[in-house]
Amino acid sequence: MLMTQSSLFSPPIQFSPKKICNETKKIALFSHSLRENKSLSSRKKIGKTGVLYNGYSYFTSPCHPLQLDLPNCFQGTDNDDEDDDVSDDGIGIVDFFQGKNILITGATGLLGKVIVEKILRSTPVGKIYLLIKAKDKEAAFHRLTNEIIDSDLFKCLKEEHGESYEAFVREKLIPVVGDICEPNMGLDSDSADALRKDVHVVIQSAASTTLNERYDVLIEANVTAPQRVMRFAKTCKNLKLFAQISTAYVNGRREGVMLEEPLIMGDNRRKEDCDANIPRLDISDEINLALKSCSAAASDYDVTKDLKKLGLERAELFGWYNTYHLTKAMGEMALNEIRGDVPVLIIRPTVIESSFKEPVPGWIQGNRMFDPVIISYGKGQLPAFFGNPEVTMDIIPVDMVANTTIAAIAKEANKNKPQLNVYHVASSNRNPLKYTDFFEYLYEYFNSAPLVESQNISRIEYFSDFNDFSEYTRGEISRQPETNNVQEDEHGNIIRKAQNKCRARVAYAQQLCKMYEFIGFFNARFDTRNTEKLVKEMSKEEKINFEVDVMNINWRKYFQEIHIPGVKKHIINGTTRASI
Fold first, then answer.
1. What pLDDT, on the 0 to 100 scale, is given for residue 44?
2. Residue of 132, 197, 270, 309 with fewest CB within 10 Å of its CB?
3. Which residue blocks in 183-299 are alpha helix, DSSP H?
């Protein structure tokens, strides 16, 4: 969808106690200690290509060394785990959601769907309005049924409500035909009036998440559309809070510890020592630039190619890794500029992966950030990785992001103050996982159970030079029996049927690692003090029912017993295209 120049400025039911479904009961309660996450740094088979890319060779504390860069008032103390100042009532999550009506955009996406399920299952919410892109009400109900009500994610709710399940969800979930990329969000007058009267909380979860999509497409979805939602929210008579789902990588190329602070309109995110003469980021100028590129191209193919290139160039100029991160940052800036006195909560998760515990361990939708890497390695098609093995990766299970969002909404909305608060939902500071450990866990799993039968899985090799990575990958894949098959046709001509497959696999591995280069050499950590405060303020019951503490994750168990089985079930054996 192309944009225009003017688009930028344009009775509760009885609540029953939470029930845990049979699937969740099967999970062992993981230890709160990280001791089982044994360091594998004794096996550092890096060879001549191993690097330490402005990182840390080893650290034993669960707190990353970069956290020492925090101001003293933000650093942890020895008595951080004491709960003396926590009331029995905690944050009051359940009390806040009692009878509240929620409007959610992006409810059919991964995180949006988990938020909907969790609110339904664990709170006495009033109604949840779901903005669904559809041609009419009948089509919206069809999407609601197929993509939400019948989803495996809602298994616990189905078990809890039995025969009354469908009646329950249809009473609670109200599909609304709309599109945030259309004027007035594509709402008819009756729907708009009903929402303005009923809604207490708006959760803006819709976005375009393709990293290097066309610049105009990402501006429309991630910058202009959220402003439409905000402008509508400001007309809601009973609005308590506006929650925006963003990404931690709006922090761009800055290094060190990224604080939970709002982005300032116009600021770039280049490294501190870079050229200070970079112009300020002007959103209107960026829209005009994209419009000019649209009109200057000779064909649709040229438009797409030119706008993808333009987005990457602008992201590089202003200090972001890709067009998606740049436009999500612009969206945050714009929302802060127009929000007025509306209380705003910005949730910035890192890389979201499958659910940790609930409602279904390992549930995932779509081929997420690290899953193509996992699948390719498990098939023996990724013998090397372009990245630093000592870099700490940052993964967060989707249910922890949903729980943090729900708990933070209750906390911030109860303040009744027109503030903007940022929550990083991340793991690298408090429960760090290095790439060398991540790939060792994958090796342990796939060495005994490869995704391709009879395929030998070797330990990954790491490269800091892309050409070396490409050469090594090409050599390893070409030596595999499947891609080294030479045949002759009836005329005696040599046909190397596997050569095309070999070239395709090498190209896929190159594309994969190049696209994710920024996280392979990422040299920043995300301050999570707001989430840590959230944990401290929660009651014991809330900590159990709304799990947000990343210290409870044992990474080996998470990948080997939860995530990889979930990927196999929901991606490889599902309908999502996994890899070549």
1. 37
2. 197
3. 189-198, 215-219, 225-233, 283-296
